[in-house]
UniProtKB/TrEMBL annotation:
Organism phylogeny: Bacteria, Pseudomonadati, Pseudomonadota, Betaproteobacteria, Burkholderiales
Keyword list, A-Z: 4Fe-4S, Iron, Iron-sulfur, Metal-binding, Oxidoreductase, Repeat
Protein's organism: Simplicispira suum
Coiled-coil regions, chain positions: none
One GO BP annotation of this record: formate metabolic process
Annotated protein name in UniProt: Formate dehydrogenase subunit alpha
Residues of the full protein shown: 247 to 952 of 952
Length: 706
């Protein structure tokens, strides 16, 4: 490289929502090492991904020039070892941008604004998320904009907005330090939020009781006071039984309910039918154990609830979270240190991307597009007319791509920045067919992902380590990422690409300053956020590096704990919503007798495009595996290390078996990071009606020796 000098760059880990601060050691144009920095979420700690997962940015597969699809090449997944040159040719930025924006413009004028849609990404910065949704809303002219929050915590956010008036966490993870009881449900934090898991384990060491409730007992189970290995799909039965027991045993926090809760009487009446004794056969947990846990939770000085995708990715995901809100509310376990509700966010910026408005029904800061006042405010702020009809969500958009030609809402063109729906969406055969049948697809990414293989134009983008930008972690901390190296070849900063696309679609944007005007974009977003981050100016971020919102003024240190006095609902109180038992969409039967649960593993991140190109992480976990317990394998005549074929009604994969006795009988667990055995070929695209999140955590499969 030109600059041979070694240097250190302070930034944020690119992976999970814990938001660990890091320092990268750089030699020339290469990152050669990373150290944990003393950040508020990590105090120097890092997991294996943060510590070793940085070298993907130097992988020879990086896109270094814009690509344009050769005429007549069919849009389908590449054969193993396929050469991209048979499908694409390199192009100049001028040509690629003209084709990318021109194709979208053409579809808009032929079919109207609703023919277009965009997926942004929670892997990008707040500034990119903000600008992307602005481009779709103004440049495309519709609200068809979404991102992977739809696959992650959309149901949690729906329930939280309804119940407590805010979709974010009430207390930071580090608050487990002040908890006497830590209720973890539907989450495997050791793999998915590893540094957060270390804080939980530290709390257990000083005497806090961990309750782990999950169909799959993972590493944290060894640190738990009680484990509730409930039957997959029976979450609401389990949680309603706990709520029933709290009321039945006289452990309701009467003063809290009187002053700060609404809907308690309706909830109590609804819960009459859900005694622990009645629910025990459904959820598979003995009634005395349910009662013991309910008592411990309600009578703890401080009890905190943390949950993950095991709760949210169900057709009853919103109902699951309604129950969790009720549990915190009727026991008064919210609004103080060591209490509250914490949906553990998956990606480094899924909180921020949602806050910035990268969702179809809401403008920045959760202002509803169908609220005329909110819409008028943004029309004035952006100086452009806006559409007041909520757009389609991720899975709906792909369904609409396959709608008949006569459908006025058929999606015909898409712009996808940093997402990989051809791996991450449910029912991949359907999703890939939908992406492949678009008339025009523009993909902006750092690798030729499975989705990019289906594109008409591919725009080579920047990795997290190659740009300035902010990300908001699971604790609501806005944290500053800084560039360590320049993007390779002709790859460009995403903010620059976004502004070129906007210009190509006829928008006259001007964000002055260095590096694509990131500071100017941030400052515009800060104003668009209706006060939530009013006190977090760009200058303050440069200086402090991490500030928690809500932060109302420059003097406000930030508010890690919210709901101390009131809830930001219309009445100022928590609104309780009773939940009934809604079974999973596809139940096991004679043909497909087992249940499939998908998820992640420690070393691999989401669709694997980054971590599988990281030498150390790939060396630790090089091949796709399916986990089953020893007894279940024996029943099916399978052996650990052998190969199995797993099939659902939608597809099948073949992969190696591994023994995991924490996986319950009748169940198989698959990580979704492996393109050669893509778990989402099997999953069901049935949606939760409120959050529109697909049911990744429950579908019927059969497993046989391959
Ligand atoms: Fe990165 Fe998350 Fe690991 Fe921290 S816990 S180092 S943010 S992947």
């Amino acid at each position: 490289g030109s600059q041979a000098m070694d240097r250190s760059v302070d930034s944020v880990c690119p992976f999970c929502g814990v938001g660990c601060l890091v320092t990268w050691q750089v030699r020339g144009e290469k990152i050669v090492g990373v150290q944990g920095r003393d950040g508020p979420a990590n105090e120097g700690r890092l997991c294996v991904k943060g510590r070793f997962g940085f070298d993907y940015i130097h992988h020879p597969d990086r896109l270094t020039a814009p690509l344009v699809r050769k005429p007549g090449v069919p849009k389908r997944m590449p054969e193993p070892g396929a050469d991209w040159r048979d499908t694409f040719r390199e192009a100049s930025w001028d040509e690629a941008l003209a084709l990318a924006a021109g194709g979208l413009l053409q579809l808009r004028s032929a079919h109207g604004p609703k023919a277009l849609a965009g997926f942004g990404s929670a892997k990008g910065s707040n500034e990119e998320a903000y600008l992307f949704q602005k481009l779709v809303r103004i440049g495309f002219g519709s609200n068809n904009v979404d991102h992977c929050t739809r696959l992650c915590h959309a149901s949690s956010v729906a329930a939280l907005l309804e119940g407590v008036g805010s979709g974010a966490v009430s207390n930071p993870v580090r608050d487990v330090e002040f908890s006497d009881l830590i209720f973890v449900i539907g989450s495997n934090p050791t793999s998915n939020h590893p540094v957060a898991a270390t804080w939980m384990k530290n709390a257990a060491q000083r005497g806090a009781k961990i309750v782990l409730a999950d169909p799959r007992i993972t590493d944290l189970g060894a640190h738990a006071w009680r484990t509730l290995q409930f039957r997959a799909d029976s979450d609401v039965a389990l949680l309603n039984a706990l709520l029933h027991a709290v009321i039945d045993e006289g452990l309701v926090n009467e003063a809290f309910v009187r002053e700060r809760v609404e809907g308690f009487d309706e909830l109590r009446a609804h819960l009459a039918a859900f005694s622990p004794e009645a629910m025990a056969p459904i959820c598979g947990i003995a009634a005395p154990l349910l009662r013991e846990v309910a008592r411990a939770f309600a009578s703890a000085k401080n009890a905190m609830i943390l949950w993950g995708m095991g709760v949210s990715q169900h057709v009853h995901g919103t109902d699951n979270v309604r129950c969790l809100i009720a549990l915190a509310a009727i026991t008064g376990q919210i609004g103080r240190p060591g209490t509250g509700l914490h949906p553990l966010r998956g990606q480094n910026n899924v909180q921020g991307a949602s806050d910035a408005g990268l969702i179809p029904m809401m403008l920045p800061n959760y202002q509803r597009v169908d609220d005329p006042g909110a819409l008028a405010w943004f029309e004035n702020f952006w100086g452009q007319p806006l559409d007041g009809e909520p757009g389609y969500t991720v899975v709906e958009i792909l369904h609409k791509a396959l709608a008949p030609d006569a459908d006025p809402h058929k999606i015909r063109g898409m712009y996808i920045m940093g997402e990989n729906p051809a791996m991450s969406d449910p029912d991949l055969n359907h999703a890939r067919h939908a992406l492949g049948s678009l008339s025009h697809l523009v993909v902006q990414d750092i690798f030729l992902t499975e989705t990019a293989w289906l594109a008409d134009v591919v725009l080579p983008a920047s990795s997290w380590m190659e740009k300035t930008g902010t990300a908001s972690n699971t604790d609501r901390m806005v944290q500053l990422g800084r560039p360590a190296v320049a993007p390779p070849g002709d790859a460009r900063a995403d903010l620059w690409i976004l502004q070129q696309m906007a210009a190509g679609m006829g928008l006259d944007w001007h964000y002055p300053g260095d590096e694509s005007g990131v500071a100017a974009v941030y400052e515009e977003m800060r104003l668009a956020m209706h006060g939530a981050i009013a006190g977090i100016t760009w200058d303050r971020l440069l200086c402090e590096g991490s500030v928690t919102y809500p932060c109302l003024s420059l003097e406000d240190p930030g508010q890690p704990i919210v709901f101390r006095e009131r809830f930001p609902t219309a009445s100022g109180r928590v609104r309780l919503v009773p939940a009934g038992l809604v079974p999973g969409d596809e139940q096991p039967d004679a043909d497909y007798p087992l249940v499939l649960i998908t998820g992640r593993q420690l070393e691999h991140w989401h669709t694997g495009s980054m971590t599988r190109r990281s030498e150390v992480l790939d060396a630790i976990e090089p091949v796709a595996t399916a986990s089953m317990n020893a007894a279940e394998m024996a029943r099916l005549g399978l052996v650990a290390g052998g190969r199995a074929r797993i099939a659902s009604r939608r597809g099948s994969v073949e992969l190696m078996l591994r023994r995991d006795d924490g996986t319950p009988d009748g169940t198989v667990f698959l990580p979704f990071a492996y393109r050669e055995a893509a778990a989402n070929l099997l999953t069901n695209s049935a949606l939760d009606p409120f959050g529109k999140i697909p049911e990744f955590k429950y579908c019927a499969v059969r497993v046989a020796k391959a």
